């Protein structure tokens, strides 16, 4: 596909204009971390980015994630898989969405919006075939959950945004006390460096400002203007990867 450069108009106030470039391919969901890019398309095919090309991986997933905890995913039956030695192995449990962005721990939500996380030791040693692994059940209910180096963020079915502080590799549940964050989003992603981005019900993209280890909840939201609407985002190494409503793939900065 020929790349097209989308130059965006400048907004003022709590908004920021991005310059985005469309790259080849079509995906419905994408995740990026430490220079790695993974995604799935509408047919549940799995892809990773090598240089300027997409390489299809074996298997079928509806959601894939990459991060310090490795590469994980869930399929249309909500079965959980981990990429081990170049092949997908099934891990015990059921989740509809999973995130590997925590400090060597994974987290996610199931079909009833129950929230789970798996501490580092179990995350690292899981090789598939275990009859049981020690998932931790968090309080509350979320439809999407994502973790970074020092906090986890989620949104519920009403679009409310919550942050969990105090998460560590061996205490992925954190403080177990949710902090409600002003705003409304449909999905949210925390990057490996702790940056927080999300998409709202109007398919607009926002960035959380002021996020740090000292202030995991941040200070406010900035609207990121770009041509067209978006349904999924992921951020890594200064680049925001965006999936449009038409499944187009954009890299923005």
UniProtKB/TrEMBL annotation:
Cross-referenced InterPro entries: Beta-propeller_rpt_TECPR (IPR006624), Tectonin_beta-prop (IPR051513)
Keywords from the named record: Lectin, Signal
Keyword Endoplasmic reticulum on entry: no
Signal peptide per UniProt: 1-17
Entry's family note: Belongs to the tectonin family.
Name under which the protein is recorded: Fish-egg lectin-like
Organism for this UniProt entry: Huso huso (Beluga)
């Amino acid at each position: 596909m020929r790349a097209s450069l989308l130059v965006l108009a400048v907004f003022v106030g709590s908004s920021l204009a991005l310059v985005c470039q469309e790259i080849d391919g079509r995906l419905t969901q994408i995740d990026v971390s430490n220079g790695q890019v993974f995604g799935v398309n509408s047919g549940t095919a799995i892809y990773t980015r090598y240089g300027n090309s997409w390489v299809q991986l074996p298997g079928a997933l509806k959601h894939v994630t990459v991060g310090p905890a490795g590469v994980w995913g869930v399929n249309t039956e909500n079965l959980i898989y981990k990429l081990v030695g170049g092949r997908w192995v099934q891990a015990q449990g059921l989740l509809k969405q999973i995130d590997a962005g925590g400090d060597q721990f994974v987290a996610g939500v199931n079909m009833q919006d129950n929230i789970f996380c798996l501490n580092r030791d179990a995350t690292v040693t899981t090789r598939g075939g275990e009859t049981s692994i020690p998932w931790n059940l968090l309080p509350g209910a979320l439809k999407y959950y994502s973790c970074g180096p020092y906090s986890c963020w989620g949104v519920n079915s009403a679009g409310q945004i919550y942050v969990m502080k105090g998460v560590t590799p061996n205490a992925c549940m954190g403080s177990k006390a949710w902090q409600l964050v002003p705003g409304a989003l449909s999905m949210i992603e925390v990057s490996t460096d702790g940056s927080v981005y999300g998409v709202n019900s109007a398919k607009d993209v926002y960035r959380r400002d002021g996020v740090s280890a000292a202030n995991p909840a941040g200070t406010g939201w900035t609207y990121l203007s770009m041509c067209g609407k978006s349904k999924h985002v992921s951020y890594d190494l200064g680049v925001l990867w965006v999936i449009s409503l038409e499944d187009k793939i954009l890299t923005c900065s």
